[in-house]
Predict the structure.
Amino acid sequence: MNLIIIGTGLAGYTLAKEIRKLNQAINITMITDNDGAFYSKPNLSTALTKNKSSNDLIQNTAKEMEEKYKIKILTHTKVNSIDTEKSQINIEKKSFQYDSLVLAVGANPFRPPINGNASNDALSINSLNDYKVFRKKLQSAEKVAIIGPGLIGCEFANDLISQDKEVYVIGPDAYPMSGLLTKETGEYLQDELSKYKVNWHLNCLPKSINKLNDKYEILLNNNQSIFCDLIISAVGLRANLSLIKNTNINHDKAILVNEYLQTNISNIYAVGDCAQVNSHYLPFVAPILSGTKALAKTLNKDKTNVQYKASSIIVKTSNCPLVIAKPNTKHDTSTLTKTKNGLKLLYLNNEKKIIGFILMGDQVKEKQILTKFLPDFII
Ligand SMILES: Cc1cc2nc3c(=O)[nH]c(=O)nc-3n(C[C@H](O)[C@H](O)[C@H](O)COP(=O)(O)OP(=O)(O)OC[C@H]3O[C@@H](n4cnc5c(N)ncnc54)[C@H](O)[C@@H]3O)c2cc1C
């Protein structure tokens, strides 16, 4: 079989590894628009604390991955379009035929419109290349503003603390990580990070970013101004739909796939941050690991549906340890316990069974025990 995987992020490479565990004969070609270095993206928001440079984060080069997994990798090669009728992808002047195609094209940073002469200078950090640029600019920066108080914004704020930077976190939310935390737990995180040099500008939006004499001025819609040397934009990611735009492949907010990670075109699959399994969009590592395992079996002619194991997100805010297992179904009640150095919030269903939790500070030690109570996530 001739399999093409577009994308060499965690989803693309993990799929190739899983296939090789089952089958050495499938002809795998991977295509990426970058250098194809294999790295773990979650490490981007902890590298300062761990004293790692962008090069230290590379686990294998594309060449090493080719040899290790007996695959062919086309680097610095952008796929421009897919012809689903001819089972063909197009790259500049060349075309490649496939028997099966896997889209592992990830997600792109969302950039909200902001006025000013320097609004494009805000850095989004979603790849190793982005990270290289960030580290270079950070060398001469003392004050760093982060637009977006979500999970990624909070992790970068936490990481910058280790470098003794003055950090400003800006966003419209009333408390950090409002999509994953409750008011009490969000405020706890806010208070813990405020003990370091993290300044919060919540309930407000940036109106403009202007550069004056090497300094940025961010004007907020409450008329306050923040002056800083570097700006990170961490407003969220959107599934990369550019390749399927002019095709008959269905999408919702991401490429729509069924429980076999198959699109409406039978020989095209999608996995990772670009894919939405039925109604579930889960741009995290654990769903990629379960998804690629199942898809490898399906591509090896053993049709297997994806099943998500109960799992939690370890938020890498080391100055305020935090683990979240967001309920997959509607919760009935929640209970909050405050301890001397932490918080425990349990989500319960109408039978009073634990279906999710938020653990903070010294309470993260309960993660393993509580995870056992969580129901598996069946699609
Ligand atoms: C800073 C940060 C920290 C994170 N921390 C965590 C964490 O702690 N835990 C967790 O579970 N998740 C975390 N995540 C999310 C997790 O990293 C992602 O879910 C995962 O890495 C996505 O992998 P992917 O392969 O789907 O996408 P990507 O890594 O984005 O890979 C997509 C690939 O497709 C290529 N591509 C796209 N379009 C084309 C084209 N037209 N032609 C050729 N190539 C193309 C890209 O170049 C890239 O190689 C974090 C994310 C970030 C940004």
